[in-house]
Amino acid sequence: MKLLIFFTLFILPFSLWSKTVLYIGDSHSVGPFGWNLDESLRADGNEVYTVASCGSIPKWWSTGQPTPCGFFQRDLSGKKIQLKKAKTPLISTLINEVKPEVVILEFGGNYLLLPSDQFIIDDIQKILTTVRNSGAQCFWITNPDTRSNHKAIPRVARLMKEAIGDTCPMFESYLVTHYPKTGGDGTHYWFPAAIKLAKQWAQDAFTAYKEHY
Fold first, then answer.
1. pTM over cut 0.90
2. Of the four, 1, 15, 27, 68, which is 20 to 30 A from 211 by CA?
3. Distance (Å, rounded) from C-alpha 50 to C-alpha 31?
4. How would you classify the pairing of strands 86-87 and 102-106?
5. What is the pLDDT of residues 72-114, one digit of tens each?
6. From its phi and psi, is residue 21 left (phi > 0), alpha (psi between -120 and 50) or beta?
7. Do the strands 137-141 and 102-106 form a parallel or antiparallel pair, or are they unpaired?
8. In 133-147, which positions are buried (b, 16+ CB within 10 angstroms) versus exposed (e)?
9. How far is residue 175's CA from residue 141's CA, in Å, rounded to a whole number?
10. What does the pLDDT average to over 52-68?
11. Is the separation of the CB atoms in 126 and 92 below 8 Å?
12. pLDDT digits (tens, 9 = 90+) for 127-182
């Protein structure tokens, strides 16, 4: 009996912490950052469905716009799909299939070149409305630091904060990352000198997620 009680107490917190998580994002989630965050979420006992579409902004997830530069998916069973080109899945379809308790959204980098403040705000609020109307909670991960279009980061950060408000917690990736002065394309953390940074960024994002969920 004592052994049974001990076992029950041991697994109970784990079952309470674990959740069904839908994680979607752009090119950063197609690469090392996304792979490592996905692994951390699963290792913590969550059921995770990860989908990432290179070049995407939230609008793509309601129109199905194809990505020309990379697609990554890992379903609840752990099966992976990696393609160069694929249609961006619809957020409504993913929510219906996965039935997530939490939706993690990693976006921001592709806003850096968009001139319309109102478009960015509306784009964010539309997808968050879809998520919250489903009954799921949300967690927003912003773009990291970049060498390219670096001056646009404060503007986009301000717009994301305005659009998200108190709807869900926001992890400000640009505050914990520093893009190398040389190497890479100026945006992605996919080259050797930046992969270690991507792993640490993923760990920091996971730690922040755990503070809320």
1. yes
2. 27
3. 12
4. unpaired
5. 999 999 999 999 999 999 999 999 999 999 999 999 999 999 9
6. beta
7. parallel
8. ebebbbbbbbbbbbe
9. 12
10. 98
11. no
12. 999 999 999 999 999 999 999 999 999 999 999 999 999 999 999 999 999 999 99
The secondary structure of 47-76 as a DSSP string is EEEEEEETT--TTHHHHTPEESS-EEEE-T
Burial profile 10-20: b = 16 or more Cβ within 10 angstroms, e = fewer: eeeeeeeeebb
Q: Residue 102: beta bridge partners?
A: 21, 137
Q: 25-60 burial by CB neighbour count: b if 16+ within 10 A, else e?
A: bbbbbbbbbbbbbbbbbbebebbbbbbbbbbbbbbb
